[in-house]
Amino acid sequence: MQGNLPPEAEEKIEELQDLQETAQQVAVQKQQAENTLNETETALDQLEEIDEDTDMYQEVGELLVETEYDEAETELEEKKDSLEIRVETLEKQESRVEEKFEELQQELQQLLSGTGVGGPQGPQGPGGPGMGGPGGD
Questions:
Q1: What is the pLDDT of residue 121?
Q2: Which residues does 12 contact at the CB level (< 8 Å), separation at least 6?
Q3: pLDDT digits (tens, 9 = 90+) for 57-115
Q4: Nearest to residue 93, comparing CAs of 12, 26, 37, 40?
Q5: Side-chain-side CA neighbours of residue 37 (13 Å)
Q6: How far is it, in rounded angstroms, from Cα 15 to Cα 50?
Q7: What domain range includes position 65?
Q8: Where does the record place Gly residues bias (predicted)?
Q9: Ramachandran angles phi, psi of 56, nearest 5°
């Protein structure tokens, strides 16, 4: 079907497809960041419930390394702050992509409605009235 579309319309369709792919990638990144943020908040909640003298360990790759309560709390708070910023940034990016997608859809609709349903071969196309074709003289 795309072969019958004007080149501008084909370009808009390609842009829409690219934007859709971008939107999916942003949504996946946002979901991952939200999941990590939830895990971090849960860890902070659990940290509040334990005694500060409790032996604590943190994961470093495949190892568990002993850590201090204050250090663990500070690292989790910093991670939480960073993730909140990341989620907010991804939400803004998601909104911009959605706006651009809607804008491109409207432009495409205008392009397609501007050419008529029949496209260039419609009622006023080659051979139609006023085009010097048969019956037009």
A1: 43
A2: 104, 107, 108, 111
A3: 999 999 999 999 999 999 999 999 999 999 999 999 999 999 999 999 998 898 888 75
A4: 26
A5: 15
A6: 53
A7: 2-115
A8: 115-137
A9: -130, 150
**Which tokens belong to 89?**
């940034």
Dist CA 26 CA 107 (whole Å): 23
Beta carbons of 13 and 5 less than 8 angstroms apart: yes
Q: Three-state SS across the chain?
A: CHHHCCHHHHHHHHHHHHHHHHHHHHHHHHHHHHHHHHHHHHHHHHHHCCCCCCCEEEEECCEEEEECHHHHHHHHHHHHHHHHHHHHHHHHHHHHHHHHHHHHHHHHHHHHHHCCCCHHHCCCCCCCCCCCCCCCC
Read off the tokens for 95.
């909104």
Q: Which residue has the tokens 């419930």?
A: 49
For 68, phi and psi rounded to 5 degrees? -90, 155
Type of residue numbered 11: E
CATH of the domain at 52: 1.10.287.370
Inside any domain, residue 122: no
pLDDT band for position 3 (cuts 50, 70, 90): low
Q: Does some domain include residue 132?
A: no
Q: Is residue 68 part of a domain?
A: yes
